[in-house]
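ERR on first pass: missing label on line 2. Operator R.T. fixed the label and resubmitted. Corrected input:
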Amino acid sequence: MNYFDLFNLEPAFDIDTALLAERYRELQRAVHPDKFANDSEQQKLLSVQRTSQVNDGYQTLKNPLRRAEHMLSLRGIELSHETTTLKDGAFLMQQMEWREALEDIQHSQEPQELVDELYDSFAEFEATLSKKLTSLLASSDEADALLAADQIRKLKFMAKLQDELARIEDDLLD
Amino acid sequence: MAYSEKVIDHYENPRNVGSFDKNDPSVVTGMVGAPACGDVMKLQLKISADGIIEDAKFKTYGCGSAIASSSLVTEWVKGKSVDEAATIKNADIAEELALPPVKIHCSILAEDAIKAAIEEYKTKQAK
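pass 2 clean. output:
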């Protein structure tokens, strides 16, 4: 299923998210089960299936990482549920250091300061990865698609770090 | 999801957590990460002149299964030769810990950490 086709959008990484939301509402109305209340069981079932497809498509295209994964999946590169490991030593060393920094927050005198610093570092690193990903996804070259996959993998590690940081920050406020 | 007793045991009492001095010439490091869950694993091996793994330490940021998998392999590799350690398969780890299918990637991570460390050892030897 090509979700860009479903929402009638150009298959690009930097989509117009306002337009996506607008198309989503239109489609949702068009396929909503309430509209088929007086139709056959088969029609009702179809409407339920279409609704779930539209919802899945919207969630996929709304989230940049999932959108990028979908673009690669349309080109035959499957990233979801993959079990391959990442072996980029320098990148992983940095991940380790950041995980250690997250551990240090609880024992720090100025935890909020550390949290803010880490948010900035994560955002900066993530922006660099996203920029690379955007240009790699714009290329139709197979080798670039594989490099794009690596950027997505790294962005997943960054998403995990940000989740952890948000969780730690929540704990600080308790 | 319920963890097996062995996973809980390794998770609550992880064996060989920590780091060796990375400047020690007999120490090699394997670093791997799992993009699916963002887990990161560092496995260090202390290898004697005749290629026997004398000691192992790990540091893993991840779920219980990832920690248990790395803790288990530090126990398994100790006393083995590098070539013997290289034969450890993720299926052996998954079976020992009774990992459910969704956690198989944790055992793959541990297998790949051993491989990465041994690769560094071979590169060092070739120099």
